[in-house]
Automatic annotation (TrEMBL), chain A:
Name of the featured protein: Small auxin up regulated protein
Domain of life: Eukaryota
Composition skew (Basic and acidic residues), residue ranges: 80-90
Region annotated Disordered, chain positions: 34-95
Pfam family, one: Auxin_inducible
GO BP, sorted A to Z: response to auxin
Family: Belongs to the ARG7 family.
From TrEMBL, chain B:
The name this protein goes by in its record: protein-serine/threonine phosphatase
Record SUPFAM superfamilies: PP2C-like
Phylogenetic placement of the source organism: Eukaryota, Viridiplantae, Streptophyta, Embryophyta, Tracheophyta
Gene Ontology molecular-function annotations: metal ion binding; protein serine/threonine phosphatase activity
Species annotation: Digitaria exilis
Domain of life, per lineage: Eukaryota
Amino acid sequence: MLTRRHGGFRLGRKLLSVWRWALCHRHSRGGRRGYLRLQPCHGAGRRSDDSIIRSPLLSPAPPATKHHHHNHQGFVLQRGDGDGDGHDDASSSPRMLTWGRSLARRMRLLRRNRKDRLLAEDAAAAAEATTPKGQVAVYVGGAEPGGESMRYVVPVVYFNHPLFGELLREAEEEFGFEHPGGITIPCAASRFERAAAVAAAGGGGKKVPGWW
Amino acid sequence: MLGPLLRLLSGCGGVWPTSPAPGAASSSSSSGEDSEGRDGLLWWRDLARCHAGDVSVAVAQANQVLEDQCCLESAPPLGTVIGVFDGHGGPEAARFACDNLFPNLRGNPNPNATHLRCPPPKTDRRMFDLLAEVSSGPQGVTANAIREAFLATEEGFLALVSRLWEARPDIATAGTCCLVGVVHNRTLFVANLGDSRAVLGKKVGRTGQIAAEQLCSEHNANQEAVRQELVAQHPDDPQIVALKHGVWRVRGLIQVSRSIGDVYLKHAKYNTERIKPKFRLSEPFTKPILSADPSIISRTLQPNDSFIIFASDGLWEHLSNQDAVEIVHSHQRAGSARRLIKAALQEAARKREMRYSDLTKIDKKVRRHFHDDITVIVLFINYDLLAKGAARGQPLSIRCALDY
């Protein structure tokens, strides 16, 4: 068994990987080694902090597939450990990442199996959502909900702005209230972006209602 | 002693099983915990005591003007009467039904004047006769009496529309669903008109599990049986049901096939150019397209009947029957209605690709794009009390207090 002593303790194989990763991460904090690598992540939006995932305000995110069970692919900027550190394969990043992901998946399943999963504060819902806190996804320009459309992510409070109210009225006439999927607005992308810019500038915004 | 401890545990995040034993439940509610709260677009009242047991109520608003109404009264001789009214096309019909259906059932005007939003119209001779029949008959409440009360309310609203037609033609397009539950001694009556739903939570043997049983059929055109019934009743009308926005609607306009109000679909003289163009029908109709005849069931309550959830379709859009009864069963009684609304809103937020905590930042009217008005009343049945036939405590009258 691959073990290592450190400070009088024996570390098992998995703990060893974590230990090495933690040490490497500390050493490489100065940015001396590693490179930025674009890696697809699967629903990792909740775990990562905002410094890794940025929601593009007013710039279109890649059009997502309209599956409710969230095969959304976000993109994560990650440090690669390309050159390795000379140790054996127990410390290689892809393995570490795979183990980390499988652990996260197991935790999610564990949480989902609990009886009160429906009431788990934000955690269960957000694990499937890639929209960051305070934002909501809007699909603009499609002929029907689920058709070809641009996916925007805007702050939720924009919805209280009168210009957005107008857009939503048109959406209601076109699609009704009970359409599946995210909010869909049948207008040109340019018009939506103008409305969002005005809302961002705070022109004629309404008061935020009560919290609960 | 057990009650406060359980409340403390549930306050710490709700991860501990907090559903108390039956003995403890009554002690926690008898410690005087009847609170009313309001937060933004949510209102709740928890664990009020009524003749049938305990009741938890909550309402969430989504429309600019709240179109859901709910009402609960508990007094002899009728016992406990619960009403959920899901209005559409405006709040007038739901408010009217809420104000008048119970007096029509019971025979007394509402004694608690502060709950009245508008005075009931003058009752006519026919309603007096009906009321006398109900309160003096040896059987007390019967299914026929409930049906008569519905019809009397429908006629009352029609009279109101004809009075206001000149000044306010839009009242012809207002309507409401009605869901009424009456617990009289050990008999439960559920009368449904529209697509609200009452679900019974029944304990399964000794397993500790809970099963859901829907108590009444819904009158929604999305159900095959309802569409077939409509087609059979209107064989000459090929457009009697039509798909619009992915949803079946009667004449492409309205999902429910029975309601109080909606006189523009019941009497052709109200379907003129004075109402909004989207409600106009191209050809006049000879017989009413919608009806006001409720589906009524009655059953004797059993010891393993634990609770009944009365809710408008805003809840059932997002939660299944089984999900709802499991949520109520696996938590303490206080706050059940709020918990159900929260679960429904979490699901609504998930569907719209946003977080539940952000949903609360959205104003009413815009909120309608995310969910509908939700009204939930959970009645926890105290079987022993009903079996003894003992009248319990003061008469109770609850009316939703959200400003509209």
